[in-house]
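Re: weekly structure request thread

Next one in the queue (505 aa):
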Amino acid sequence: MIVIGGGGSGLAAGVAAAEAGARVLVLEKASKLGGTTMLSIGSFTASRTSYQERAGIQDYPEWHFEDMSKFQSEFEPKCNLQLRKLLTSEAGNTLEWLRSHGVVFVGPFLENPHRVPRMHNVIPSARTYISILRRVAEKLGVSVFLDAEVTKLTRKNERITGVEARNVRTGESLSFHARRGVVLATGDFSASSELKTRFGNSDLAEVDPINPLSTGDGHKMALEIDAAVKNMDVIHTSYEKPGAEIRFIPPPKDWLVDLVPDSKLFIKLLGKVFPRMPRRFMVEVIKIVLTVHSAPSPRLYQEGAILVNKEGKRFTEETKERAIDVAKQPDKVAFIVFDAKVADKFKQFPYFISTFPGVAYAYLDDYRRSRKDVFFTSQELENVAIKADIDVGNFVNTVDRYNESVRSQNDLDFGRTILPSEIDSPPFFVLGPIKAWVLLTEGGLAIDQKCRVLDEQGRAIPGLYAAGSAGQGGVILPGHGHHIAWALTSGRIAGTNAAMTGVAF
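Done, posted below.
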């Protein structure tokens, strides 16, 4: 059996298939395993888990299913409810399966509108999924080829029989035969300008992806054999619309949590220690995660912050949609500018810079401590621009012109109507660079509840399965922890079914 993609869903598929008795080959086009899973926060939302039971929390998959519709996503009517039911029924089983292999979680934590705590946070970070599944795969005899870019699905009598690939480093052509089937675990298409434009997201075509390797390879190969796709116009979004999210640029050095050893023994030790630590300690650790991975709150602009580009110029109406405009600036970056009046607010609830809802909130002082690379302050307006490497002359003129707009309550440039106060009280602050990213594209190949890929007539394509973002199949995944849960759950299901029901020939 062949699995295309070595991220969370691909490794889950490979391990599950090997456990079911299949010989498995995982092909990954990157030089290392991990995919988008490695770039996530790593929370896993599930019901009926041993962690809930230990905490005395009564929960049911039926409740979980009902609560997912309460997020009030504008895309809710497009959701494949059969696949959502599959997720909520099986996510708890997947979490326990991961636990059996040594993955450790803390929690669960509550995120509204869930009626009970369901969000489990992996220890110490999302790379744990990859490191542990990789080791399990090795023990089970799963073969892994890196730098192997799959370019085509091969088939005989309508059945998928293997793949054609190439060695990214050498250019050598490769061909692999699959006796039991192929699982597409190739991620989303957030890095494909072609697919984003083709399916109606031309505004996002040039917005950079979080994962530059998410080029929609599985989508493209499956479309070539007339597979059906669902919700290709839906882009994952948090604060921003129509589908990109503003985040701070990544830290220049390895993040502290990623330096923590990922040995199974050490993870097990952390699992015993973390629950016994004061909640305040865990919150402080999560705050570090927030300052690296989360979007700055739009409330900053509502309270008086503005956005400027590296040339020191405003470029948008800050209180409305901002991400696409940020992506059009020089170097695709921008900076958040405010003064002491705003800063004094964003030191305590409810004025947070970023949040992991219901778990932790990161305030201005957290960014001062954890993200010195994006935090600049000075008593002089000119000096804060110099520190942030912004054009000083334009920056001062921009602030002066904005202040004039506040005084007249008439935005002279962009028609902004929320103009609470001038930027005139030292110290002055700049946060950034920030950048617009496409985090995930929600559209995927149509699949059934066995994760078999379907054609335009709704028929299963023999020998072809899909998991993760490639096989999202129309299911909408609002809130935290559902994308990871779907990736690993659909991977486990696809791998098991490909191994057990695939017809040898």
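The first strand starts at residue 2 and ends at 4. The chain is about 30% helix and 20% strand.
Next request, please.
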